[in-house]
Amino acid sequence: MTEVQSRPPISDAEAREWQSEFPGLRGTIHVANCSHGPQSRRVREAIDDYLASWLEQGMDWDAWMAEVERARESFARLIGARPNEVAISTSASAAVASIASCLDPSPPRSRVVTTEAEFPTVGHVWLAHAKYGIQVDFVPVRAGAIELADYEVLVDEHTALTSATHVYYQNGFKQDVQRIADIAHAAGSLLLVDAYQSLGTCRVDVREWDIDILVSGNLKYLLGLPGIAFLYVKEELIERFEPALTGWFGRVNPFAFDARGLDYAAEARRLDTGTPPVFAAVAARAGMELIEDVDTRRIGVRIEELSACAIECADRLGLEYVGPRDVSTKKGATTAIRVLDPHAIERELKERGIVASARGDVIRIAPHFFTTCEDIDRAVTELRTLMS
Fold first, then answer.
1. Max CA-CA distance within the chain?
2. Which long-range contacts (CB under 8 A, 24 or more apart) does 128-136 make?
3. What is the DSSP string of 44-68?
4. Could you give the domains of the chain?
5. How far apart are CA 270 and CA 246, in angstroms?
C-alpha cells in the first residue's frame, strides 16, 4: 500500500482545516467551483512573487519561462502524461481550435463527432471549421445523459475525431471515457476529451484510459485563473499535427526569429502559440500543486460523499434535482437543481454568503475538497428558502 493510498478519506474536520487555505471562505460558502474556484493562499503568494519580480527586475524572462515550464510539468503529472506531451494555450477554445486546424477534411475521414453535452465553445469550434469541409455530427443528450450506443451509431470509418466532454457542465453527468475511447479507436477515430469540469475532482489517467488528446483550463477545480489552458497529445501522435493556428513558441527554436521558416517543434510544444500567459501560468502551477498535495484520489472519494449529501438534501427539501444519481460512476462534482430565474437566485444566494453558479435553468451546487456536508446543507436549505 502506497503512502497516498494509506491516507484516510477527507473528513469534514479536515475540510474545515483546508478552509484556512482560502481566506475568502471566512463567512462564505463557495460551491461554484464548476465556474471558478476560490483564491488560495498558495496561488496568491505565487502571484505576489511574480508581481514583485516584475516590479523589481523589470523583466526576468528566464525565470518567468521557468515558471511556465513548471506549470507544464504540473499538468503532465496531474493527468499521468509526460511534459513533452503537453502544450500551453490561452483557453480551451483556442486549444480545441488549434487541434481543429490540424485536421485534413478530405475524404474518407472528414467527420467530427461531438455531443450536445459539450460546453458550447467546443461545438462552435467544430462548426466553424465546416467551411473547410469538416462534417460535424452531434451525439444527442437524452434525459440529461448520453448513451454509449449513440456513439456506436455515429462514430464510423468516416470519423476523423470524436470530441467528448468528461463531465457535462449543465448537470454533472459523467461519461465513461474509457468506453468512448474503445468505440472511437475501433472505428479508427481519435478521441479528444474536454476535462475542464472534472480535473481536480477525480483521478484522470490519459494512458490508462487511452486518451489521444485532452484539454482543460485551470480556473475551476484546479484553483487557478482564466487565461491559460493545457493541451495533451499522445506522444506517438504529435508529429501528425501541424496546426494552422500557431505562433512563435510552436517553432523548433522560438528565438530564431525567421519569419520565412515554418517549422514545428518535435514535442507537443508545436501546439503552443504566441508569448506564453506567464501570469496565469504562475497561478496555475500553484493551484495544481495544491491539488497534488491533497491528491485527486482522495478528492474523488470526497466528491462522491458530498454529491450524495447534496442529492439527499435536495430530495428532503422537495427540490427538483436533474442530474444522475449514481455518484460513483455517472456523476461529477456538480449537483444541478432546477429553479425559476437562476441568475436572480444566484445573486440572492451571494447576498446570504453562498457562492453558487447559475447555468441555463438550474443552480449548480459544485463543492470541492474543502467543502463540508454542513456547507452543502446550508446552501441547499437557503436555496429552498429563496424559492419559497
1. 66
2. 128/97, 128/100, 129/100, 129/101, 129/103, 129/105, 132/105, 133/105, 133/106, 134/100, 134/103, 134/105, 134/110, 134/160, 135/110, 135/111, 136/111, 136/112
3. HHHHHHHHHHHHHHS--HHHHHHHH
4. 3-30+295-387 (3.90.1150.10), 48-291 (3.40.640.10)
5. 8
Cα(226)–Cα(58) distance, integer angstroms: 24
Are 50 and 279 in contact by the 8 Å Cβ rule? The answer is yes
Q: Side chain identity at 164, as an amino acid letter?
A: A
- Collapsing DSSP states into helix, strand and coil, what is residue 136? strand
Q: What is the dihedral of CA 285, 118, 125, 231, to 10 degrees?
A: 30
Cα four-point dihedral sign 12, 16, 21, 22:
positive
Which residue from 295, 323, 15, 368 is spatially nearest to 355, judged by alpha carbons? Answer: 368
Cell digits for 114? 461531438
pLDDT of the chain, 388 residues: tens digit per residue:
344 456 899 999 999 999 999 999 999 999 999 999 999 999 999 999 999 999 999 999 999 999 999 999 999 999 999 999 999 999 999 999 999 999 999 999 999 999 999 999 999 999 999 999 999 999 999 999 999 999 999 999 999 999 999 999 999 999 999 999 999 999 999 999 999 999 999 999 999 999 999 999 999 999 999 999 999 999 999 999 999 999 999 999 999 999 999 999 999 999 999 999 999 999 999 999 999 999 999 999 999 999 999 999 999 999 999 999 999 999 999 999 999 999 999 999 999 999 999 999 999 999 999 999 999 999 999 999 999 8
Burial 294-311 (b: 16+ CB within 10 A, else e): bbbebbbbbbbbbbbbbb
For residue 125, give every residue at least 6 positions away whose Cβ sits within 8 Å of its Cβ, in sequence order, or none: 93, 96, 97, 100
Residues in the chain, total: 388
The CB density around residue 6, as the number of other CB atoms within 10 Å, is 7
Nearest to 116 by CA among 151, 140, 136: 140
**Residue 77: other Cβ atoms inside 10 A:** 14
Cis bond before residue 108 (omega within 30° of 0): yes
Closest CA to 285 of 225, 231, 367, 206: 225
Do 247 and 36 meet the contact criterion of CB atoms below 8 Å apart? no
